[in-house]
Amino acid sequence: NRYITIKTQVDGEPKESDFELKTSALSLSLDSGSNDMIVKNLYVSIDPYQINRMKSHSSSQKAIGFAAAITPGEAIDAYGVAKVVASANPEFEKDDLVVGLITWGDYSLLKGGNYMLRKFDPMGFPLSYQVGILGFSGLTAYGGFFKVCKPKKGEKVFVSAASGSVGNLVGQYAKLFGCYVVGCAGSKEKVALLKEKLGFDDAFNYKEESDLKSALKRYFPDGIDIYFDNVGAEMLEAAVANMNTFGRVAVCGVISEYTDAAKRAAPDMLDVVYKRITIQGFLAADHMNVFSDFISTTTDHLRTGKLYAIEDVSNGLESFPSAFIGLFRGHNTGKKIVKVADE
Ligand code: NDP
Fold this sequence. Notes:
Number of domains: 2
InterPro entries: ADH-like_C (IPR013149), ADH_N_2 (IPR041694), ER (IPR020843), GroES-like_sf (IPR011032), MDR_fam (IPR045010), NAD(P)-bd_dom_sf (IPR036291)
CATH topology of the largest domain: Quinone Oxidoreductase, Chain A, domain 1
Strand content: 25-35%
Largest sheet: 7 strands, mixed
Shape: globular
CATH class of the largest domain: Alpha Beta
Helix content: 25-40%
GO molecular function, one term: oxidoreductase activity, acting on the CH-CH group of donors, NAD or NADP as acceptor
CATH architecture of the largest domain: Alpha-Beta Complex
Radius of gyration: 20 Å
Bound molecules: NADPH dihydro-nicotinamide-adenine-dinucleotide phosphate
Number of strands: 15
Keywords: Oxidoreductase
CATH superfamily of the largest domain: Medium-chain alcohol dehydrogenases, catalytic domain
Organism: Rubus argutus
Protein name: Enoyl reductase (ER) domain-containing protein
């Protein structure tokens, strides 16, 4: 079995030389009663938060509260779609399609039954949707927008990293709900996608703006009601400066701070007090109670063509490092996925 691992902890920007491909023997004979399973990995989700699990212990302590640190030399675990090859777990059979925690490898050996895995019905959609629009990216966007931002129709919404996996869906849900939506992204192609295909009211390239506060003032002359934050740092400060009274900021992630320990948002707290702004962090897993609403709403919109699934797929096990590194360089548009193998 081939798999990808980190050579040592990664602090700062990840680079190709931080990763290596290893091989290990994998026996198909599992001890009965062990609940062990072997699955063939098909589609693996590539997620920014993994960088926080790769950091050296002291700098990652806060970040790894909900997921263990990644050990150099061991296969990196990640959410993905796989097919059961061998199972000593009575709940799963050979050839079952499953989604859950697998690995950056050709195959995953899942030990002891204490793994997050479930069978699923593709409902006529591509299998890759399970790691993006119908998986955690979608739930993050849906739960974060509807439950944390608590939108009202007509409110003005700003989304950062808006062409990314979570951001593009937040903008699409917000438009379908009846909000005014502006997104920012890092290239003119991404800006065009938001405005021309995904129905955003407006969008801009944040890399072309020298003063983010005045840029947001231009796009929101009457202020921002909701800011869905994917990036943190200066963008969060600029958004808070432009929030309306009783505005809500959902802090989904702070990708610009993940690779730069010196960068931390310092929003003006006087704005927060006098404008009574709510700033709330959240995790997708907080919103499992809306999972079935999320799936039924999202699949309905997909079937009627009101919602687009934007995917960015790299092929083959060797592409894991570049796919992951690309997240921090803005190389991806939409959900970044590695397709490891055909079904
Ligand atoms: P994306 O698909 O959005 O990929 C990352 C994008 O972030 C890049 O394409 C790039 O786009 C942008 N980016 C990278 N570096 C910077 C930077 N320094 N400043 C500004 N933008 C940057 O990833 P996801 O949609 O998977 O994740 C988006 C955010 O949501 C992340 O912060 C992630 O950690 C968080 N998240 C949180 C979850 C939760 O449960 N709370 C669950 C899933 C994700 P561009 O070209 O526009 O710069």
